[in-house]
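COMPLEX REQUEST
Ligand: T4K
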Amino acid sequence: MVEPFKNPIYVTRPFLPPLKDFCKGLEEVWDSRWLTNNGPVVTRYAQELRSFLAIDNVCLFNNGTLALQIGLQGLGISGEVITTPFSFVATTHALYWNKIRPVFVDIEPDFYTIDPEKIEEAITPWTTAILAVHVFGNPCNHDILSEIAKKHNLRLIYDAAHAFGVQINGKSIAHYGDLSMFSFHATKLYHSFEGGLLTFNDAKLTRIFDYLKNFGFENEVEVVMPGTNAKMTEVQALMGSILLPYLDKMIQERESIYHLYCERLKEVAGIRLPIKHAPSIQYNYAYMPVEIEECRFGMSRDQLYEKLKEYNIYARRYFYPLICDFPCYKNIQVQDPLRTARNVASHILTLPIYAGLSPDEVNQICDIIIFIQKNH
Ligand code: T4K
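STATUS: Structure written out below.
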């Protein structure tokens, strides 16, 4: 017999710094009375991110969705963009808000990132870019994607919402493609309450993004483009800045949770664990996705998901349904049968993982999963 958790165990919980450190930082904000509109904390935080990522061009936003929307607009993307349906809906919303038609293609089965083999057949005269997602922090196959993008003169944009802290051969994933967007939402491994970051190599884009996120203001009396309001606040930047030195520790904690899950669940029939990354990839352990194979596990993913709630465990089915199946996108014609994406979306379950989840709790979650299976 296994006991349910007394308190709910969610798929994630935000990491928080010591409250006194945050309050100390707030004193500076209080003293300056500068709360938003590119204040001193945001400016300093942008500089910290530049050195942390070893990249010259960064632009901060109040959330990842607006960062991506503005990124696409600033790059002048239009027409059709090839993207993945296996993502959070914001990936496609950012296209839609730019009046761009999403062209959904399949994902590959091991890391759930866009399948490069499906891209060329989806290119039309209207295609202007590829919007790929480093889903769960798994890096896309950049070498092949950039080759295709170059060959067809397309922009390569990464939704890197999940990938902060990921490195390839010691270099941040922020360096890849024409543009990357990171989300600093509270549910991410690293956060600024809410927040978004664009990283890019073309320095000329900085001015455009700065206009677009601040109503297009050049100065008090000139508006040079119809921008919106997407600025990060001082308090958001303060949280981001205080948390940056904790990033390695947060990743290490998640890494041990991840390995503990793998160790405990490897013998359980019908649970497919994540595939190991190549040694060149320093992964961030952003999510703990497993696939539940009904015939071997003995119950469906949805049955397990519901049953876990009885034990106070709130796993999530990221990303089900596929974006193209939401009513607002159902009218878009999809040529690709999306076999892998459909299969993954109906089997995926993301288990709780966050800094602060104790080994005892992970063991209890695994005991409960095994118990549910045996007693079904
Ligand atoms: N692209 C991709 C690939 C993304 O995944 C996302 C966001 C974006 C773009 C857009 O970036 P942002 O504009 O959000 O910066 C959550 C997040 O809201 C969303 O940011 C994230 N992806 C998505 C994958 O997950 P929900 O609807 O699942 O969140 P919610 O409120 O159900 O939270 C999940 C669990 O986290 C809760 O059960 C409890 C826990 N939680 C949540 C919050 C907000 C806390 O413990 N504390 C909290 O403050 O979307």
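REMARKS: The chain has a mean pLDDT of 97. The chain has two domains: 19-245, 246-374.
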